[in-house]
Design goal:
2 domains; Growth Hormone, Chain: A; globular; mainly alpha; MFS_sugar_transport-like; membrane; transport
């Protein structure tokens, strides 16, 4: 390859990493924004006829529906991502997510339109889920397939950083408008962060339009290996890999939405802390993840994907009881510490996760296979987690019941990880059948 070609490739690698990270951050800003406001405001705005417990359950139910829609998005956009390319699909998912979020920002509440308010909120939440369901696979592949194949763990971890970036943006924006609007947060302050989505989407689209299609997908097109119905084909050829991809996420996803979303409700209603303190803690946790996610992604390139992932699952298991022990002290410094430290065991899983999953599928089925496997966990782990945690707390009256739930998820992940193959050093376009 010539020096000019090398320079051009280096530019595309940087653009792909940046476009994947920024675009994913915007998608997750919208997704986490909903979760934050669902914990702090939606029970009062869209379910006011219910008591606090029922209203919180109803609010988290609409939250969970967004997760249920994610495998649908994975199937839809996985199909087009493996047929038309990663870049075009990612532009569509970003637009869908941004528009859905902006409409939430102007949605009338229950007092204005009655039952239509929670119905429309649910529909918009499901559109968000479809958008983010198609986003993850494309953003990971855009970065991983352009990057150095000996550093796939690190390259695939860049779009994973979109999660803490989105968390920092959403939590920080909510905290800012809580401070600015004060008592007016429940009337108008909560709307502004949703409306800001349109500005962020415009920035994301500008960045993504400057990235070329990945060389791996271009090779599939040139060799005429594009599959007519990739979703059906990947389910037929790789059912084990899809199921295991979902199960290895149990220790990562279910605890994450307890650590980041449920803790806002728990901290406010059970522990008595203010919204500002709690959102500051989750924002700080997100900032820490900006460093720990790429670190663990890089470490997986050194020690192997399975070793790193197994260690992360064990860390989640070990932290389950100390986490609620620290929270239940009600000492602000220890509560703050519990929330921040929770990201370390999570990120030990999340850093290597994208490469670990994507490496198990051939290039012409990778968008569909990785996306479906990844997003199936949303139905059984991420979406139900705040609901299950709320029910466990209400039923048993102690956060330690939720610790048991976290341990169960960690054990499932440990077993599933043991059944996965180590592919960190294998060429992703040669070993698997295409």
């Amino acid at each position: 390859m010539s020096q000019i070609a090398d320079a051009a490739r280096s530019t595309q690698v940087r653009r792909a990493a940046i476009a994947s990270t920024i675009g994913t951050a915007i998608e997750w800003y919208d997704f986490f924004l909903y979760g934050t406001v669902a914990a702090l405001a939606f029970p009062y705005l869209f379910f006011p006829k219910s008591d606090v417990y029922v209203g919180t359950l109803q609010s988290f139910t609409t939250y969970a529906l967004g997760f249920a829609a994610r495998p649908i998005g994975a199937a839809i956009f996985g199909h087009y991502g493996d047929r038309l390319g990663r870049k075009a699909t990612l532009i569509i998912t970003l637009g869908l997510m941004g528009v859905s979020s902006a409409i939430i920002g102007i949605l009338p509440t229950y007092t204005s339109i009655g039952l239509w308010a929670p119905i429309l909120l649910t529909v918009l939440r499901m559109l968000q889920g479809i958008g983010v369901g198609g986003e993850w696979g494309g953003s990971v592949l855009l970065s991983m397939e352009w990057g150095n194949q000996r550093r796939r763990g690190l390259m695939a971890s860049w779009p994973q950083m979109g999660v803490p970036l989105g968390l920092v943006l959403s939590s920080g924006t909510v905290a800012l408008f809580i401070a600015i609007s004060g008592p007016g947060f429940l009337t108008w302050g909560w709307r502004i962060p949703f409306l800001l989505s349109l500005v962020l989407v415009a920035i994301g689209l500008f960045i993504r339009l400057r990235v070329m299609e990945t060389p791996y997908f271009q090779k599939v097109v040139e060799e005429r290996k594009v599959i007519a119905v990739p979703v059906v084909e990947v389910i037929r050829r790789h059912p084990k890999e899809i199921v295991l991809s979902a199960l290895i996420r149990m220790a990562e996803q279910a605890p994450f939405y307890i650590f980041i979303s449920f803790v806002l409700s728990y901290g406010k209603t059970t522990l008595g802390f203010g919204e500002g303190f709690l959102t500051l803690a989750t924002t700080t946790a997100g900032i820490l993840s900006l460093f720990t996610i790429p670190f663990f992604g890089h470490l997986s390139d050194v020690v192997g994907r399975k070793n790193m992932y197994m260690a992360g699952a064990v860390l989640v298991l070990l932290y389950a009881f100390p986490y609620f022990g620290l929270l239940d002290t009600r000492i602000p410094a220890l509560v703050f510490l519990a929330i921040i430290v929770s990201m370390i065991p999570h990120d030990a899983l999340y850093g290597p996760q994208a490469a670990f999953i994507a490496e198990h599928f051939p290039t012409n089925l990778r968008y569909s296979g990785a996306s479906i496997g990844y997003q199936l966990a949303s139905v059984v782990a991420g979406g139900p987690a705040p609901l299950i945690a709320t029910w466990l707390l209400h039923t048993y009256g102690t956060g330690y019941s939720i610790s048991v739930y976290i341990v169960v998820n960690a054990v499932i992940t440990i077993i599933a990880t043991a059944m996965m193959r180590e592919r960190a050093k294998v060429e992703i376009d040669k070993e698997l059948p295409v």
